[in-house]
Amino acid sequence: MTPTLLRRGGGALCAVILCWLILYWIGWATVVEFHTDLLFYTGQHLLLVLVSMAAALVVGIAVGIGLSRPRMAGSAERFMQVFNIANTVPPMAVLAIALAFFGIGATSAVLALWLASLLPIVRNTYQGLRNVDPALKEAAKGLGMRPLQALIRVELPNAWGVIMNGVRIALAINVGSAPISFLIGANSLGNLIFPGIYLNNAQQMLLGAFATALLALVLDGLVALIAHRLTAFQGHSAAEGAA
């Protein structure tokens, strides 16, 4: 057995033991009592994350591409500073602003989560495209590629790893921030966490927090797997093209 497999096996075993200990601490009776609520609020939490992340991906990647273009070289960093400042606003303040415009409910929560997820995607898309080897860009131009063709066929594939790192950071922020949407009337795993705090029910609170952490880990693993498969597919396609 290789060292890599041993490390992975050891990590998986530690994760299983840790999950078992947490569930033991929470108590199976609590899991059984709240299993219906747990399934429902996990689904609602996931819906908030998927909708807000989809919007963040569309806007964030588009803005990052726009800022990375040569014509934006003189002002791109100033725009990035605007995003940096916006990201320092606490999530509660963003929720309050969204609440003022859209009222109580899921719409305000999606807007707040979208804003919280935007910066890592914009920043990593911008940095990934800016750091593409200039020689590759010149080669694409020498082959007669138009700017859009060079972007799709050369720049984005070479910036893919950096962009996906930004997506994973944004996803972690999104999943971790979604529980506070309970405070503005949107359903999420916060519907288990906050009532557990108010009622001094530590088991209920821990169940919601553990489910949130587990959801973040599962989604991050899925995104990492997709990124790995796409990278492998791109490498295979490039090898075939070279052949």
What features would you describe in this structure?
This protein is mainly alpha-helical. It has ten helices and no strands. The protein has a single domain (36-233), classed as MetI-like (MetI-like fold, Orthogonal Bundle), CATH 1.10.3720. Helix content is 84%, strand content 0%. The model is unreliable at 237-243 (pLDDT under 50).
Could you outline the blueprint of secondary structure elements for this entry?
Elements: H1 3-26, H2 28-33, H3 35-68, H4 76-87, H5 91-102, H6 106-130, H7 134-142, H8 147-177, H9 190-198, H10 202-242
Helix pairs in contact: 1-10, 3-6, 3-8, 4-6, 5-6, 6-8, 7-8, 8-10, 9-10
Short description:
This protein has 243 residues and is mainly alpha-helical. It is 84% helix and 0% strand. It has one domain (36-233): Orthogonal Bundle (MetI-like fold).
Shape: globular
According to CATH, the fold-level topology is MetI-like fold
Structural class: mainly alpha
Model regions low in confidence, pLDDT < 50 over at least 5 residues: 237-243
Helix content: over 70%
CATH architecture: Orthogonal Bundle
How many H/I helical runs? 10
Question: Can you tell me the CATH class?
Answer: Mainly Alpha
> What's the mean pLDDT score?
83
Major beta-sheet overview? none
Cα radius of gyration in angstroms: 21 Å
CATH superfamily annotation: MetI-like
| Strand runs, count | 0
Query: Strand-residue fraction?
Result: under 5%
H and E order: HHHHHHHHHH
Question: Into how many domains do the coordinates divide?
Answer: 1
Terminal-residue CA separation: 34 Å
